Amino acid sequence: MIEFKNVSKVYPNGTYGLKDVSVKIEQGEFVFVLGSSGAGKSTFLKLIMHEETPTSGEITVNDFKVSSMKQKEVPLLRRSMGIVFQDFRLIPNMNVYDNVAFALRVTGTPTRELRKRVPFVLDLVGLVDKAKNMPTELSGGEQQRVALARALVNKPSLIIADEPTGNIDPELSMEIVDMLDSINKVGTTILMVTHEHELIRRYENRIITIENGTILSDRPDWRSV
C-alpha cells in the first residue's frame, strides 16, 4: 500500500516537485502514472523509494512511515520493492544469471535458495536459455526482461516500473506490460510510470496523471481520461 497525505516537495532553488499531493494505492492494484517531462513523476517515485524526503506531509509505503523513517530502515523498505528502470541498469561484466542473483546476494540470501529462485524468475520472463549470456549479447527487450527478473527475484510486494518501455519497440513494449500484468494478477502491486498514452489503451487499469506537481486526474481506466 502507498499513501501520500498532503505531500509537498520543494527543492533548494524554490522549485516545487510536488504540491500538496494526497493519493492512496491499495495492495494488489496496477496503476499507470502519466505525465510529461518535468511534471513531477520522478519526484513522486523518489519519495516512495526514500531517495528524496518530503518538505511536508506524510508518506506510507508497505507499512513503513517513509516520511519519518530512520536511515537504517531504508534498506528494509527497498527490499519490499522491485524497481525496473528505462535504461535497464544491468551490470555489464556479469552474465544474465549473475545480474539477477546479485539482488539476492546483497541481502545475504543462502546459496541454496538463490539456486532455486534465479532459474525460477528467469523462466518466468522466458530467459532460462540466456542465463550465461552477457548483457551486450542481448536485445533491448531481453535486457529489459533481465531487469524485470532482477526486480522480481526478492519476491517484492511492490514493483515500480519507471518508463520500462522507453528504450524498446512497440511490440516488445506490449510484451513487457503483459508480463507486469501477469505479475499483478498474483497479488503484486504494480506502479508503472509512462508517457505512452497509446500503450495503456489495452489495459483497464487505474491512471493517475501528474501535471505541474499536482494530481491532475485519478481515473479508473483510460476510457475515462
From TrEMBL:
GO terms for biological process: cell division. GO terms for cellular component: plasma membrane. It is found in: Cell membrane. PANTHER family: CELL DIVISION ATP-BINDING PROTEIN FTSE, IMPORT ATP-BINDING PROTEIN. InterPro entries: AAA+_ATPase, ABC_transporter-like_ATP-bd, ABC_transporter-like_CS, ABC_transpr_LolD-like, Cell_div_FtsE, P-loop_NTPase. Pfam families: ABC_tran (PF00005). Part of the ABC transporter FtsEX involved in cellular division. Homodimer. Forms a membrane-associated complex with FtsX. It comes from Neobittarella massiliensis. It is a peripheral membrane protein. This is Cell division ATP-binding protein FtsE. Keywords: ATP-binding, Cell cycle, Cell division, Cell membrane, Membrane, Nucleotide-binding. Its main location: membrane. GO terms for molecular function: ATP binding; ATP hydrolysis activity; transmembrane transporter activity. Signal peptide: none annotated. Belongs to the ABC transporter superfamily. Residues 2-225 form the ABC transporter domain.
